[in-house]
Specification:
Layout (H helix, E strand, L loop, with lengths): L3 E4 L10 E2 L4 E2 L5 H4 L4 H6 L4 H17 L1 E5 L4 H11 L10 E2 L4 H5 L4 H13 L6 E5 L2 E4 L2
Parallel strand pairs: 1-4, 1-6, 4-5
Antiparallel strand pairs: 2-3, 6-7
Length: 143
């Protein structure tokens, strides 16, 4: 049975879009861009109000019986800013969000699977078949 769900962030939980007036995508490895987004752009970065409501409901259900993590090459600061601004931060313990400025991700040369195996699975007591990693286009069960 799955007990731990780990999400990538950009293009998995979020739905980045191109800001033509700034010639840049709204991804979390650009925290300086994320900080300039207004409320509507932040909602749009999650795919709009309808997708955001569905995501809120989905995370609410998942959080009832699973521990939820984010492992991303984006910056944790930018991820938290977006989550907080749209009301989704309540589903994530801050210690369960890993971004490129986190020492744990730096120590494994930014290899997400290594961080998941060496940090999350080994320190939590989860068996590898109890962990689900969700990223763009893929759902990975680590065996």
């Amino acid at each position: 049975m799955i007990r731990c769900i780990i999400f990538d962030f950009d293009s998995t939980l979020s739905s980045p879009f191109y800001l033509a007036d700034r010639s840049v995508w709204t991804i979390t490895d650009k925290p300086e861009v994320i900080e300039t987004l207004n409320d509507e752009e932040r909602i749009r970065n999650f795919g709009g109000r309808e997708r955001l409501a569905a995501l809120d409901s989905f995370l609410q259900q998942l959080s009832k019986s699973n521990e939820i993590f984010i492992v991303s090459i984006g910056f944790k600061k930018a991820i938290l800013s977006l989550l907080e601004s749209v009301g989704l931060a309540k589903y994530f313990d801050q210690k369960n969000i890993f971004g490129q400025e986190c020492i744990e991700l730096q120590h494994v040369d930014f290899v997400k699977a290594t961080l998941i195996t060496n940090t999350i699975i080994s320190s939590s007591g989860y068996l590898s078949n109890q962990v689900l990693f969700v990223r763009i286009f893929f759902i990975t069960i680590l065996f």
